[in-house]
Amino acid sequence: MSALAIVFICIAGVLIILSVLYFHYNNREISLRKESEAQRGKIEAVRDQMFKVLQEKADVASDYREAFGKIFPDIIAGRYAHDRNDMMKWIQEANPNFDTSLYKDLMIAIEAQRVQFMNVQARMLDIINQRATLIESYPSCWFVKNKQAIPYVVISSTATKNVMGSGIDDFIISMR
């Protein structure tokens, strides 16, 4: 009777362990799949934000350039219209300068927004990799029931897609 009880306890213990593993690995797979869905939304939101920020900054810089271009000739013409020492005044006076800091700010924003976009895409690839490792590793592969891949295509440029397809990258940046 005690041998039968020991066998029953061992079988029950193994079933409990298997059940715990089944739920653990499936819950982990579900968690990664849900995280990938949320990450897809973050990628879309970051990309949308990137284009809105850059467009608005570019519009401000463009508006400034146009406004400066319109008022500068009038300022200069008004100052020197009736004076014979125009050239001397031009040399001695502090004339309005075109402020390029808006363009510098735009370039910094472009770089920052692109880095942020790259980071959210990299996180998506990390999630997909974690899930693939989970469903392909032992013993988790025995327990995970949903083995369907998470679809995702990395968003990149045509040039990068061509390089990845051909394996050839002849693009060289010249500073001349």
How does this model look, in words?
With 176 residues, this protein is mostly helical. It is 77% helix and 0% strand. It contains 5 helices and no strands. It has helices at 2-80, 86-92, 101-136, 140-143, 158-166.
Short characterization:
77% of the residues lie in helices and 0% in strands.
SSE series: HHHHH
How many β-strand runs? Answer: 0
Rg (CA only): 32 Å
Helical content band:
over 70%
Major beta-sheet overview: none
Which short descriptors sum up this protein?
mainly alpha; 176 residues; 5 helices
Q: How would you summarize the topology of this molecule?
A:
Layout: H1 2-80, H2 86-92, H3 101-136, H4 140-143, H5 158-166
Helix pairs in contact: 1-3
